[in-house]
Amino acid sequence: MTTADESEPTAREAFSLLGHEIRLEILLALLDGWRAVYTDPRSYADLMDAVGMRDSGKFNYHLDKLRGVYVREVEDGYVPTASVTALYRSVLAHRPTERTEYDPTAIDSDCPRCDAKAVLRYNRGFVSIECSACDDWAGFTYPFPKNGFETRNADAVARATVRRARHHIGMARTGQCPFCAGGTAVDIDLETTAADDQMIEIACDTCTFLVGVEPLQSLLTDNRVAGALADVGVDLERYDWELPTPAMRIKSRDPGRVVLEVDGEMGSATILVDETFSVRSVTTDR
Ligand SMILES: [Zn+2]
Ligand SMILES: [Zn+2]
Where are the transmembrane segments (predicted)? Predict the structure, then answer.
């Protein structure tokens, strides 16, 4: 385990490096031909040429500032670091300079509380699905890059967001942050588990990843759970809020064991999880 020490640049220092025309030109030249692991390094002369500089002293000074943080020297020249390619990808994905006005749009799903049409909104990088009529349903909200709207209509965006959330949440529940690969912690309140509206919270200890999800939603990417739900007639192609709400009960507090019972059209599935929401066993009764 490594921790940030005094010699490691902070986020502030890393961002401040970008605030210079020549350094930006160097990075953009490196990112221009970037092809992930297949990237050919750019030679010193080529890079200097791409930036349009004649003064090697000045060029060197700025290249040196970027070294380690955003630029790595390899055998045949220079390549961008993972920090700057991640930043680049984020900017492409979230299109921060474009405005996307998105009026609430009805999708092919109904509110689970009142059966009115569900609508999709987009705000500050989050897709939200909510009821067009009532306030009884908390709805569904998850971050979704603006770029995801480029080739999709509202129904397709809703499906893509749900798939994305399931994938991320499944990963985070099993210990890995989908954004920074750091460790995650699952928090469930064992005192109030019987409630219908129980949420579990999954948080990353490094970056800002934090989600509150319904218990079953966090388990859908587990193969045993998915198999059992399919066996009892629960269609996982449906939106999360269209799936049955499981009955939950605490089996024991020490060690923490929680049972979820899910009723499908062809029987019921019983999922046993521990206090970190790791799946202990899955059985079906058809
Ligand atoms: Zn409603
Ligand atoms: Zn993280």
Answer: none
Around ion ligand 1, which residues have CB less than 5 A away?
111, 113-114, 116, 131, 134
**How many A from CA of 104 to the centre of ligand 1?**
15
pLDDT tens readout for residues 202-219? 999 899 899 999 999 999
Report DSSP letters for 99-158, one per residue.
------EEEEEE-TTT-PEEEEEEETTEEEEEESS-SS---EEEE--GGGGTT--HHHHH
User: Measured in angstroms, how far is the CA atom of residue 232 from the centroid of ligand 1?
Assistant: 27
Phi, psi of 92 (to 5 degrees): -65, -45
The Cα–Cα gap between 279 and 282 comes to 8
Vertex 213: Cα angle to 210 and 216 (nearest 5): 145
Measured between alpha carbons, how far is 114 from 44 in angstroms, rounded to an integer? 65
Centre of ligand 2 from the C-alpha of residue 178, in Å: 7
Q: 3-class SS at 11?
A: helix
Cα 217 to averaged position of ligand 2 atoms, centre (Å): 20
CA atoms of 168 and 69, how far apart (whole Å): 27
Given a cut of 60, is residue 3 above it in pLDDT?
A: no
- First CA to last CA across the chain, in angstroms? 47
Distance (Å) from CA 106 to ligand 1 centroid: 13
With 80 as the cut, is the pLDDT of residue 2 above it?
no
11-94 adopts what CATH topology? Answer: Arc Repressor Mutant, subunit A (1.10.10)
